[in-house]
Every structure is written in structure tokens, then in C-alpha cells.
Amino acid sequence: MAPDSPGDRLPVQACVGAVVLDGEGRLLLVRRRNAPGRGLWSVPGGRVEPGETLPAAVAREVREETGLAVRVGAEVGRVTVPGDGVVYDVVDFACTLEAPAATPVPGDDADAVTWAGAADLGRLACTPGLVATLRGWGALPS
Fold first, then answer.
1. Locate the Nudix hydrolase domain: which residues (predicted)?
2. 3-state class (DSSP) for residue 131
3. What is the pLDDT of residues 56-83, one digit of tens each?
4. For the whole prediction, is pTM greater than 0.85?
5. What distance in Å separates the CA atoms of residue 38 and residue 5, rounded to the nearest whole number?
6. How many domains does the chain have?
7. Which residues lie across from 45 on neighbouring strands?
8. Is residue 10 part of a domain?
9. Is the pLDDT of residue 142 over 90?
10. What's the Rg (C-alpha) of the chain?
11. Quick check: 17 and 93 in contact, CB under 8 A?
């Protein structure tokens, strides 16, 4: 088989992420309960379910992981992340809170949730490349 032939390619899993800033400009982060990235902080997100649109998946993932309702806005960026026998194709969207005063609570795939300002990001153990990627997209808290 020639290199890079279709038989050599890993399956691709469509995923989404939510870039949610609160009224103080802090970024919503969840600490992942499961692999990949177990114990690390990341934006809420996950796999797209069959038949689900990307915006619907983002809203569902935020609700499941934080209890918050969001309005899904524009795409802010896209990354591919190698996994164990799969490649995750992650599209991140800017989201705004439906109820700005709502308090997030961890649920589903998250064991903790926090609002992180720019200074907080340097001391949190985030998933590999998260901060650099968000910085490159201009999506970090100021």
C-alpha cells in the first residue's frame, strides 16, 4: 500500500468546542473527567452526534458540561487533534450566555468548571495547545 493511501488514514470524528466569555471577559473552562485530556482544563465541547448540526452540538455540549444555555455564534477556528486510533476534527464557535448571571456547574464529561481570566490561564493545566490556539485566533480573555 502506498503511503498516505485511504487504508492508512485514521477515522475522523467530528467535534465542537465553545469559546464562551462572561461579562467580565473571562473564558469558560471545564476540567475534563475522561480521556482525551482527563484532568486538564479545556473549553466545553465534544463529539457531534449523528444527524446533529455543529451549532446544535455546541449548545448541547455546553449545557451537558456546565448547565449553561448559550447562543452559538460564528466559527472562531478549527483544529485537528490526533487521538487513539482516531483524528478529532474540532470546530470551535464563539458563544454568548443566554442568562449572563447563571452559575455554571460541572456535569457529564466535566469534573469542575471555572471562569478564567488571562492571568489564570498561565497557572491552569490546560489541554495541549489550547492557550496558543485560542491566542492565535484572537479568542483569549484580555
1. 11-139
2. helix
3. 999 999 999 999 999 999 999 999 988 8
4. yes
5. 32
6. 1
7. 17
8. no
9. no
10. 15
11. yes
